[in-house]
Amino acid sequence: MIPDTGSSDTWIISDGFKCLDPYDGRETSQEQCGFGPSFKGGFPDGKIDNQILNISYLSGDYLNGPMGLASITVANVTIPKQQLALVDVAAFDGDGVSSGILGLGLRGLTAAFTDNDSRNNTNNLINYSPLVETLGSSGVADPVFSFAMSRDENRSYIAFGGVPPVETGEYTTVPIQQGVTTGGKTDYFYYDIAIDSMTWNSSTVTQTATNLPNHIVDSGITINLFPQNVAEAINNAFSPPGQQEDSMLWSVPCDAIPPTLDIVIGGKVIRTHPSSMIMPETLAEGSDRCMSGIGAGRADSYILGGTFMQEIVAVFDVSDKKELKFAQRLD
Description:
By secondary structure, the chain is mostly beta strands. It has helices spanning 131-137, 228-236, 306-309, and strands at 2-4, 11-20, 27-28, 47-56, 62-74, 77-91, 100-103, 112-113, 125-126, 144-148, 157-160, 172-175, 179-180, 186-187, 192-193, 197-201, 206-210, 215-217, 224-226, 243-244, 250-253, 260-265, 268-272, 278-279, 289-292, 294-296, 303-304, 312-317, 323-328. It folds into two domains: 2-137, Acid Proteases (Cathepsin D, subunit A, domain 1, Beta Barrel); 193-328, Cathepsin D, subunit A, domain 1 (Beta Barrel), CATH 2.40.70.10. The chain contains three helices and 29 strands.
């Protein structure tokens, strides 16, 4: 399962699910959805009547399935009677490995509905306790989790109730910002934080951006998604410069030299590791170009993703503090 701080619903693909083409809705082979092994069980702690998962993602993927309760064990911590979904209808472009999402977001983003046709009808929306909230309310552990991500899987950790066993520098702390729905509801939805500034340096240029919009810290997005002008300037600072491929993505030679990128959060600099600035796994056969780790986001949906989160420790405290902490790794 993919640990995703940008989503609050936990789900796993169910055995016998129906795979749909996300473009035309026609049923296709299960293999086309790109899931790992499907789950053959049910809800050990009971099915929840009249509640289903009915969710759409920015990518255009969407999912449906019944909801129920089950204990979830991850990182040697068992969260009892967690609400989750067994997806039986999916229009999804998976990675061929993962079988679902471990939703690590906040309550305001949960998406249980009373029927299959209500994805856009918030009158039928039911918010429920997501995994990180249940972690605390059950008394199993403090409602805190953290990532220490790295391209080296032997140096990558996720911890629940505390922080991973890695050496870090000093932490900076920043509050999670509340959001407001179109209907006027105020709640915590995303891990939305304020950014003081960004500075990028190359052998030929030094530039700083201030007065930036809030950014969402999202482990489910591989790259950073910045305002268009910032993304363009950073990609132009690669040596040689990046080439824009579409409205969101840039490519660079896989051996390009990236600029240094310093993001100031809570008054402290968090430097993006150079190895995060180029995505070598995107190299296509016969090409020498890779995806840049910096892309352009949409207004109100700017992202600090995997590019930012590698080689730092990111702590998500969803207790009454509602804050995030970041520190540079020293190990």
